[in-house]
Design goal:
Number of strands: 0
Largest sheet: none
Distance between the termini: 73 Å
Number of domains: 1
Strand content: under 5%
Radius of gyration: 22 Å
Transmembrane segments: 21-49
Keywords: Membrane, Transmembrane, Transmembrane helix
Number of helices: 1
Length: 50
Amino acid sequence: MNKKKNNSLYYKIINYSYNGYYDYLLGIFIKKTTYYFSFLSLTAFLLFLT
């Protein structure tokens, strides 16, 4: 019983760390795409002005 409990806790920790890692990667990806699109819109705006 105790071993099973430890295993479930271990899997919870592993699952949580994997989810945190993917959330971190997704956050970086969203940040980069946001910066990229803002840069594109800025350059398009500047080209439109000139």
